Amino acid sequence: MTRIDLSGLDVRPAQVWGGVRLVPLVRDEPVTGLRLHREVYDAHPYDDTVEVGDGTAYTSYIPHGFVADWSGTGGESAAYGTGLGEERPVAVPVRRLARGRRGESRLRFLPLHLALEGYLALHFGGPSVVWDEWSRDAVRRGLSPRAEAAYAGWQVPGLAEALRVFEIHPGQCGVLLYVADALAAAFVVPHPDDYRLLHPTLVEDLFGELVHQYAHYGAAVPEFRASVESGAIHSLADLRRAARAQERVWAEAHDGLMARDLLTTSYAFERVRTMGGFRLHRFLPPFLRSGQEQHIGELICDHRGRTLYLKTFRLSDAQIRRGYLLRRLADCDWHLERTAEALGTSYAELVARIRRAGFGGLLNAHVVARRGREKEEG
């Protein structure tokens, strides 16, 4: 599996609120055998606290969680709306939590945390060869700690209002969310009842820096408008056919243009868990420097590869550059001279790129400076 398969999901005309465009995804028939459930926590909000010694503790904020149920009983379920203290954080830390015992038919996991952990773990071990240019900490600890900022959905201007006034279609099982007509996220669930429960949780999801900026500085986007020639309409049946033709035109234009990068990109999928006849994956893009949008995400598919659950997170240009740089370093066994040659750049420029990417702490500054002087003199 290398592509996202949205077979069985049909696009409906977009709804617009300011700079936010919401494109519904509907199923003719709900998926049987898999549900996403709602689990309400008790009076104390769930958090993940780890004692680290010296009287200090690490606490991660968990905005909401899902429970996948493949027991076939078809109940309800997904935890959402938890908090940490009285203040909401502007940016939330990312961390994975997937729980489920062998033989059970339920799994609790945190939406997007699987995907973001996969990105944060990209070549996390650091240099695999002890080259002089890398510091001792780089060889011993790798990229630890590694962090990326993500904004909560309520921080994205216009998103909460758009979700509040959004009309949920019969059979709707997902949505493609655009900000300033740039694809910000995709969300798919197996059943319409699941979507109705989980639709409000989009304001608690994580969104990248690029989406946050587009929402602040982007202008309002045009609404979808159907155009029908009045002279060709002589009955309700003619009107119905014309309306359906306009829906097909919209769907083709949407899939071929607006969602093209999401649907045509070749991803690297990693299976996280098998759940009966379903599989939970997370995926990474190829980190191409081509200017096209790139997403990380997670999905649940059936044995035919059809997407039953999907959440995506759009990477910023800086995040794509970091992923690209880490891939090229790893491909060259973290040898700086060979990496610079492969990138078609100089040793000094590669060192500067590593520092701009936030990885300067991995370098042995004295050795790098000496090598740089030697190359200039040579």
Entry summary:
The chain has helices at 113-120, 136-141, 159-165, 192-198, 209-217, 236-258, 260-264, 317-331, 336-343, 347-356, 365-377; strands spanning 9-11, 15-17, 20-27, 35-37, 48-53, 56-60, 64-69, 79-80, 98-99, 106-109, 151-152, 172-179, 182-188, 206-207, 268-275, 278-284, 295-301, 307-314. With 378 residues, it is α+β, with helices and mostly antiparallel strands.
Number of strands: 18
Count every helix, treating DSSP H or I runs of 4 or more residues as helices.
11
Q: Residue ranges: pLDDT <50 for 5 or more in a row?
A: 40-47, 76-97
Strand content: 15-25%
SSE string: EEEEEEEEEEHHEHEEHEHHHEEEEHHHH
Mean pLDDT score, rounded? 83
Biggest pleated sheet: 9 strands, antiparallel
Principal-axis shape: globular
Estimate the helix proportion, in percent. 25-40%
Work out the radius of gyration.
23 Å
**What class do helices, strands and sheet pairing give?**
alpha+beta
Distance between the termini: 49 Å
Descriptive labels:
378 residues; alpha+beta; 9-stranded antiparallel sheet; globular; single chain
Description:
The protein is α+β, with helices and mostly antiparallel strands and 378 residues long. It is 29% helix and 24% strand. The chain has eleven helices and 18 strands. The strands form four sheets. Strands 1, 2, 3, 12, 13, 15, 16, 17 and 18 form a nine-stranded antiparallel sheet that branches. Strands 4, 7, 8, 9 and 10 form a five-stranded antiparallel sheet that branches. Strand 12 (172-179) and strand 13 (182-188) form a beta hairpin. Helix 9 (336-343) crosses helix 10. The longest helix is centred in the middle third of the chain and has 23 residues, at 236-258. It is globular, with a radius of gyration of 23 Å. The relative contact order is 0.17. Residues 40-47 and 76-97 have low confidence and may be disordered.
